[in-house]
Specification:
- There is one protein chain.
- Strand 3 and strand 4 form a beta hairpin.
- This protein has a seven-stranded antiparallel beta sheet, sandwiched between helices.
- The chain has a single domain, classed as Invasion associated locus B (IalB) protein (Immunoglobulin-like).
- It has five helices and eleven strands, in the order H-H-H-E-E-E-E-E-E-E-E-E-H-E-E-H.
- By secondary structure, the chain is of the alpha+beta class.
């Protein structure tokens, strides 16, 4: 029943994926979680650069990003300012049968640390009392806490603890499971997949 959920993600993520998403994750998890994605949606998005400038040439302009693909994950890297440290984040989006984004996942280092943060953006109408869980290759459920919901969707923000991180690196598919109301206000059990193909390679790019 994925096609019956319209949560606004389709208008949000195409913009966010063209911006330096690491800034959004760093701000969300490290600075009180302002609505960074909404701010980005109001700004013009520069076209991503596929390759970094070769050694000896000028660094990319402020706000420019590079983008690399690792199977089912995309890594975005860039700088807040021309001289600032490079920040990277890996992203993946889940789309429905009509090509609309229904879930987005991002992993990146928190600013000033080597700790990894996980950001999941879910559709609106999530039934919070029923809870949200994450499974890796059909294994045990890992409870996820929804931090808050806004017009773009419901956000889950958490540190990636070593046990879960190792399961993600060793797995082939994770699944986010939750209950939600469809457009006819009928309760549905939803299971959205996250491909883990390319996860380790993308992670090495983010943390390297």
């Amino acid at each position: 029943m994925k096609d019956r959920f319209r949560c606004g993600l389709e208008s949000l993520l195409p913009v966010a994926s063209r911006r330096l998403a690491a800034i959004a994750l760093a701000a969300a998890l490290g600075m009180g979680a302002p609505d960074v994605f909404a701010q980005q949606a109001q700004e013009p998005a520069p076209a991503p650069q596929q390759e970094e400038a070769p050694q000896g040439e000028a660094a990319p302009a402020e706000g420019a990003i590079t983008e690399r693909r690792f199977t089912d994950w995309t890594v975005h890297c860039g700088r807040r300012t021309g001289q600032g440290p490079q920040m990277c984040e890996m992203q993946q989006q889940t789309v429905d049968e009509e090509g609309r984004t229904v879930m987005a996942v991002a992993v990146g280092e928190l600013p000033g640390t080597s700790d990894l943060g996980l950001l999941i953006l879910l559709p609106l109408r999530v039934l919070l009392p029923a809870g949200v869980t994450l499974q890796v290759d059909g294994g045990a459920d890992t409870p996820l806490q929804v931090d808050w919901c806004e017009r773009q969707g419901c956000r889950i923000e958490m540190l990636l603890e070593p046990d879960l991180l190792n399961r993600l690196k060793a797995g082939t598919q994770a699944t986010v499971v939750f209950d939600a109301l469809d457009e006819e206000r009928q309760r549905r059990r939803l299971a959205y997949p996250i491909s883990l193909l390319g996860f380790s390679a993308a992670l090495n790019e983010v943390t390297g």
